[in-house]
């Protein structure tokens, strides 16, 4: 039974523009979008518990197969090497790159496994109509884990690696490779199938909407805000703080020091981007001759080999995306106080794109991890990681954090003609409408 049939006046404050709306009844396959900025508030699925549980179990089994069998192997001149999936991280640790190796194993194995185990735990409790212990804590953590799971990015990095060495050696794809491809697809489907609105309602119900809440206006002037984790609209105190009574998350009218933190992270990413491009990201040894390669140098090398599509992918992911993200976030920070409702929608779309594309810059780091682990044939052919791998990985992580700390609701905070009625006292019609809604 959908939550709309068991609760009255379910309010949501859009996390991107702060518009307060009442959720309509939704059938499976339907979604509710914010009427102001068109951000998706809720997506309803058919049999959400069974759907997520089945996909999570299948993804976890595929991950188990990917860890149990060989991942890739190569041979050249009668000498070859075969690696398992975890060696993409352990080999980096052996080359004194523990931070990069740890980031690789965390983003492709550890965090996805924790996420899937959490989904299974939650859905099993919901199937029994009795949530299992620590369900609320696990449900809070799922939303925080999602941006850092990069199995799909790793697959693209593996394909780029294969194209890079296809002309130099014979490559064999192991059972683990295909299992990991299935795992990446199933993990993506699992994250998309999770109906957070349904899950939180089933776990903890939904308290009645705060008294006096007026839909069709922004939430902050009414001392209201929406929880970033479970979506529940809560009341703020005089200082603009509060706590969600459903999931326990701390509530703020706006993210504390959003612009200052974003500027600081952008400055750090800009500094790290210099060594990421100046120093070599990997060093290739062939027949005793070592050749260091920078990010741009690798793109030029691929163009020389005739691999234009792969060179374009690397150039976009490793050059255009990081620089574009730095420029876009800096521009949003500069222009946030000059927004109007006419251009706020376009700037919000820019923010969405910036937040989405940031993780794909990890392709170059994954390419290095795969090639370093796979190409181990001594002086005949071998690849070692360069110092730029750590610097570039830091750029990716810091820019992702910068996008997370930026509060897109600030774009809509400038007074606009359509919001001048927000401060007026409620009329008789508003009071009557609120009474009918309740």
Task: Provide structural commentary.
- This protein is of the alpha+beta class and 438 residues long.
- Helix content is 52%, strand content 13%.
- It has 14 helices and 15 strands.
- The chain has a 4-stranded antiparallel sheet with strand order 13-12-15-14.
- Helix 1 packs antiparallel against helix 6.
- The chain is globular and about 75 Å long.
Features:
438 residues; alpha+beta; four-stranded antiparallel beta sheet; disordered C terminus
Structural category = alpha+beta
Rg, rounded, reads: 25 Å
- What is the rounded distance between the termini? 21 Å
Note the quaternary state here.
single chain
Gross morphology is globular
- Unreliable spans: 415-438
What value does the average pLDDT take? 85
Order of strands across the main sheet: 13-12-15-14
> How much of the residues is beta strand, in percent?
5-15%
Number of strand segments: 15
